[in-house]
């Protein structure tokens, strides 16, 4: 009851607080970090930043590494600062003493007095509880702290890893509850990190389920309110869609109301959590205010400005949902219609007419090339060895099994020949290992560059050496550098980038278009992810379900119902 009364009285200030902090991060802080990273990489002539070049970065560019570590430390401080700013803002709003000058002053004083270990504890703590924190505290600075989906899929397919992952998340959830009060104690009570840990553990002793239920209650209320808002606006839009004149205008207004309402609900949830963990002596508030702050005076024009921008942007969203990307079959299959990277699967998948079929090739012991993804044949052929340890004849004699199908391992030459019969373009991923021959790449391009170019095939690889070799030996071939993680936009001679979809965002796609680079997204399977890819305007999607992808994009573009596009906005626009 008290929270409800407080929020109804001060919702405008809460909204401005979160909005100003969010915009400051998006417009100023994050671009500064990106510029800093790009400057450091340019100074070291480093074309990209990934886990694949982390070791060479440390050994060959120590000063650049130190600059990046300094950036990481400042990023941690900024994340802590964001939390402290919001926490101080909530306190001052409840006390009717809200001003950004006071918030900044209090936060700066707290940072100066804080035990440095406390900030690093906060970083580790928050990175661990990110999976549980999105509804309560969502920082753009932490947007890339996610586990790529392909890694999660791999872990969940292994019973032992899946069990360990479940135990890990359970332990983190328990810790996130037991350590709820650490940061407020450090900020407002000036308690050192060790004492704050002990006090928070004591405060939550025998109260784990009580606090868990309170958090679940807040989450449930936020979810139900969001669903109710969506249902009401969807129903209204169904009526408006009956009249073409009112459909677009009403749709723009409804999508804007959905955005504002959803943001307000998330702000309420955040405030509810913060007030739950604040010490009692700072949550006491005077509910009636006689003074009119400058924030109250500018609130209406500020909201009007953002609403106008949102209305125009949402109108554009409703009439243009992005281009339909190229559809690329992942490992040559369509809905498990065969064994990956095999000829029978190619013949079936080619009938669905994907724009490209993506395959993987590796070098053999006798320096030929075979179509195979795995570095070990155990899973598909029940043979504990690598393709590099067998000749092409030995490999093509093996039978592989998957999804109830079986087939022979094909040579790259055979696969190219069958693809030509179907006039099927290929996206060829060159996989490299430490066992490859010294001249493997030169041999590959000398043998295949003409065939690849004549049939409009393309290349991609996780190995940057493949990209530079492609530009050296076959400069007119399209070559894409595969990025499993979006740290910073790379500066390479590649024609484009194949990006794992988890961290792919509109900023990366925009930078790619400005650099005249293409972007392929992998692996895009669900209807939600397919729509997101189109909305981001990626050039192509790599999918396990070609037929379903075609169906989704056909309906996505053919359906002119603004009511349905309003529902799509729930998953598309927040990104």
Molecular structure report:
One of its GO terms (molecular function) is phosphoric diester hydrolase activity. It comes from Ligilactobacillus murinus DSM 20452 = NBRC 14221. Residues 325-553 form the GP-PDE domain. With 575 residues, the chain is α/β, with parallel strands linked by helices. It has 2 domains: 2-319, no CATH class; 328-572, TIM Barrel. The protein has 23 helices and 11 strands. It has helices spanning 2-43, 54-60, 62-94, 100-113, 116-133, 149-157, 159-178, 182-188, 193-203, 208-240, 244-277, 280-283, 294-319, 343-350, 378-381, 392-396, 412-421, 440-454, 464-473, 506-514, 527-535, 546-558, 562-572; strands at 326-329, 356-363, 369-371, 399-402, 405-408, 426-430, 458-461, 479-483, 496-500, 518-522, 540-543. α8 (182-188) crosses α9 (193-203) and α11 (244-277) packs across α13 (294-319). It is globular, with a radius of gyration of 27 Å.
């Amino acid at each position: 009851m008290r929270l409800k009364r407080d929020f109804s009285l001060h919702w405008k200030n809460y909204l401005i607080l979160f909005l100003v902090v969010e915009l400051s991060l998006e417009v100023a802080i994050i671009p500064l970090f990106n510029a800093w990273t790009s400057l450091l990489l340019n100074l070291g002539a480093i074309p990209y930043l990934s886990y694949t070049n982390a070791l060479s970065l440390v050994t060959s560019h120590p000063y650049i590494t130190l600059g990046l570590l300094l950036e990481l430390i400042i990023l941690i401080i900024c994340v802590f600062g964001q939390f402290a700013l919001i926490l101080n803002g909530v306190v001052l709003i409840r006390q009717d003493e809200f001003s950004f000058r006071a918030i900044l002053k209090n936060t700066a004083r707290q940072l100066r007095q804080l035990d440095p270990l406390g900030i690093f504890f906060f970083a580790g703590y928050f990175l661990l509880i990110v999976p549980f924190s999105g509804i309560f505290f969502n920082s753009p600075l932490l947007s890339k702290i996610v586990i790529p989906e392909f890694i999660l899929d791999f872990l969940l397919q292994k019973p032992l890893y899946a069990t360990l992952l479940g135990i890990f998340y359970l332990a983190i959830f328990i810790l996130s509850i037991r350590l709820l009060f650490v940061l407020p104690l450090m900020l407002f009570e000036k308690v050192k990190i060790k004492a704050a840990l002990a006090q928070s553990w004591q405060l939550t002793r025998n109260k784990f389920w009580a606090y868990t239920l309170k958090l679940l209650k807040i989450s449930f209320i936020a979810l139900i309110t969001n669903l109710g808002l969506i249902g009401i606006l969807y129903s209204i839009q169904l009526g408006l869609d009956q009249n073409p004149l009112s459909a677009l205008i009403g749709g723009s207004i409804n999508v804007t109301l959905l955005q504002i309402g959803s943001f307000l609900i998330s702000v309420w949830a955040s405030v509810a959590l913060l007030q739950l963990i604040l010490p009692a002596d700072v949550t006491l508030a005077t509910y009636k205010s006689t003074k009119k702050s400058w924030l109250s005076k500018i609130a209406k024009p500020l909201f009007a400005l953002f609403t106008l921008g949102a209305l125009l942007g949402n109108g554009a969203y409703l009439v243009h949902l992005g281009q339909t990307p190229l559809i690329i079959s992942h490992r040559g299959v369509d809905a498990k219609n065969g064994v990956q990277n095999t000829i029978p699967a190619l013949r079936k998948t080619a009938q669905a007419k994907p724009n490209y079929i993506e395959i993987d090739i590796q070098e053999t012991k006798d320096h030929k090339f075979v179509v195979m993804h795995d570095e070990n044949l155990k899973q598909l052929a029940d043979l504990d060895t690598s393709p590099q340890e067998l000749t092409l004849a030995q490999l093509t004699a093996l039978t592989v099994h998957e999804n109830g199908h079986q087939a022979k391992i094909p040579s790259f030459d055979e696969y190219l020949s069958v693809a030509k019969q179907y006039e099927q373009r290929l996206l060829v991923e060159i996989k490299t290992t430490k066992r490859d021959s010294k001249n493997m790449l030169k041999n590959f391009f000398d043998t295949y560059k003409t065939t690849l170019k004549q049939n409009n095939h393309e290349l991609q690889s996780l190995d940057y050496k493949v990209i530079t070799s492609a530009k050296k030996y076959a400069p007119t071939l399209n070559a894409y550098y595969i990025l499993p993680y979006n740290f910073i936009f790379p500066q390479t001679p590649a024609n484009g980038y194949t990006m794992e979809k988890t961290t792919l965002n509109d900023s990366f796609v925009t930078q790619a278009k400005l650099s005249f680079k293409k972007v392929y997204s992998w692996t895009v399977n669900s209807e939600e992810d397919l729509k997101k890819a189109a909305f981001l305007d990626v050039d192509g999607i790599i999918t396990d379900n070609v037929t379903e992808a075609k169906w989704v994009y056909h309906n996505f573009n053919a359906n002119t119902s603004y009511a349905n596009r309003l529902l799509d906005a729930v998953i598309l626009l927040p990104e």
